[in-house]
């Protein structure tokens, strides 16, 4: 970490930007944190709040997720963000799903991930509310969760305790430049904010003042549909996934996935899996779908919710709670071998985005990589 105090500007009030602000404040810098909206409204508040180590690809991606998991634990003690070391259970509903899943217990990094393949009886012993028709499950003890509705506000509450932190919402950056005095951003009125160091964390805002910079970048946007149920009296101590998630998470790519029967046309077309996280208020956040082709539809489709409801009902062994809210979200995803997108815009100024569906998970470790880079300047 840097010893000398520097002036730092962070653009973007999502989780990647806010984690940059947190680690920069912890490193002793003077931070101005810019956000175009009154309160951030993008991917970071629309997600499951999962710190999802289980699905990460073996190697560098798993390592950054594990480092992030440690940092989450620390930050969760500093700030009211609803952090909890809530393990996950991936549920195999059929014999063949269970057979494929069983290989996960033998992966070289299974122990690092805290993987354990469980029979139905063992799952029920851990999670007595899962009374449905399933064969077994995969426990991951490295997974955790935060509350998306508390996360960014909770981190800013922690940050504003420091006299070194300034929050600047309603400031839409329209230009960036670098000169001998440092790095500068301006809004449409010409108001300027300057710093020796700058992290621009715009999420999926690939256009606007950065469009030239993003031209040809290995990035894409992904559109998802989500929902929330009414509060339920079904207590769940674990985050739940269905076995379709094994098709999409790279952690499982060495397993004999070809043995799995095809998904339904709908689930295959929308690349669906069930993820279900109980919020602190007793509701379930559920999802999701994936659309990789722009322009995305502005419509929220009903059919995916019917699919998710059926899967939930089968796993819970009783009618799933009613869905009372629906929303969509877009994230920015790196399409290269890089886990996320990081590029220098000018000396001391970096753009960081593209964390994809693991952006929340890895965010503190991504910010830490920026701090390490800055400390060498
Ligand atoms: C539905 C959904 C579910 C997901 N579930 C999970 C999950 O459970 N676990 C996980 O690890 N990841 C998950 N993700 C991915 C994760 O949410 C994202 O990768 C992460 O939130 C991205 O954070 P970010 O800060 O880069 O972007 P964002 O959250 O999009 O924040 C970017 C911010 O920058 C601001 N901004 C942009 N341009 C400007 C400008 N010109 N001037 C000022 N401000 C600007 C925006 O207003 C915005 O607030 C999910 C994503 C979605 C959409």
* Unique ligands: flavin-adenine dinucleotide
Round the Cα radius of gyration to an integer and report it.
21 Å
Separate helix tally: 12
The main sheet comes to: 8 strands, mixed
The helix content is: 25-40%
So what's the oligomer here?
A: single chain
Spans of at least 5 consecutive residues whose pLDDT stays below 50 are none
Q: Helix/strand/pairing class, anyone? A: alpha/beta
Give me the count of strands.
19
Mean pLDDT value: 97
In the sheet with the most strands, the strands line up as: 5-6-4-14-15-16-13-17
Task: State which percent range the strand residues make up.
Answer: 25-35%
Distance between the termini: 11 Å
Outline: elongated
Describe this structure in words.
The protein has 377 residues and is of the alpha/beta class. The strands form four sheets. It has an eight-stranded mixed beta sheet with strand order 5-6-4-14-15-16-13-17. The chain has a six-stranded mixed beta sheet with strand order 8-2-1-12-19-18, with helices on one face. It has a three-stranded antiparallel beta sheet with strand order 9-10-11, with no helix packed on it. Strand 15 and strand 16 form a beta hairpin. The chain starts with 6 loop residues before the first strand and ends with a helix. Flavin-adenine dinucleotide binds next to helix 1, helix 2, strand 13, strand 17 and helix 12.
């Amino acid at each position: 970490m840097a010893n000398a105090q520097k002036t730092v500007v962070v653009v973007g009030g999502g989780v990647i930007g806010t984690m940059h602000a947190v680690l920069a404040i912890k490193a002793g810098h003077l931070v101005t944190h810019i956000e175009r909206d009154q309160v951030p409204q993008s991917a970071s508040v629309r997600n499951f709040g999962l710190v999802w180590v289980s699905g990460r690809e073996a190697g560098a991606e798993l390592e950054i997720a594990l480092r992030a998991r440690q940092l989450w634990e620390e930050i969760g003690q500093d700030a009211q963000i609803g952090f909890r070391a809530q393990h996950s259970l991936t549920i195999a509903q059929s014999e063949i799903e269970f057979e494929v899943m069983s290989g996960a217990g033998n992966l070289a990094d299974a122990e690092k991930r805290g993987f354990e393949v469980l029979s139905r009886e063992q799952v029920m012993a851990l999670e007595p509310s899962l009374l449905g028709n399933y064969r077994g499950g995969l426990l991951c003890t490295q997974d955790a969760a935060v509350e998306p509705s508390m996360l960014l506000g909770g981190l800013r509450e922690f940050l504003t305790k420091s006299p070194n932190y300034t929050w600047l919402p309603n400031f839409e950056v329209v230009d960036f430049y670098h000169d001998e005095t440092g790095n500068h951003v301006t809004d449409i009125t010409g108001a300027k904010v300057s710093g020796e160091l700058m992290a621009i964390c715009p999420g999926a805002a690939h256009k606007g003042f950065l469009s030239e910079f993003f031209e040809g970048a290995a990035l894409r946007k992904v559109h998802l549909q989500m929902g929330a149920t009414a509060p339920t009296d079904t207590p769940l101590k674990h985050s739940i996934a269905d076995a379709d998630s094994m098709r999409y998470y790279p952690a499982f790519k060495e397993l004999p996935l070809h043995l799995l029967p095809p998904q339904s046309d709908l689930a295959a077309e929308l690349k669906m899996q069930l993820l279900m996280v109980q919020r602190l208020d007793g509701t379930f956040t559920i999802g999701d779908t994936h659309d990789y082709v722009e322009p995305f539809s502005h419509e929220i489709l009903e059919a995916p919710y019917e699919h998710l409801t059926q899967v939930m009902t089968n796993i819970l062994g009783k009618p799933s709670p009613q869905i009372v809210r629906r929303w969509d979200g877009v994230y920015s995803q790196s399409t290269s071998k890089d886990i996320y997108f990081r590029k220098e815009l000018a000396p001391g100024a970096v753009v960081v985005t593209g964390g994809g569906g693991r952006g929340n998970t890895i965010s503190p470790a991504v910010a830490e990589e920026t701090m390490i880079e800055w400390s060498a300047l």
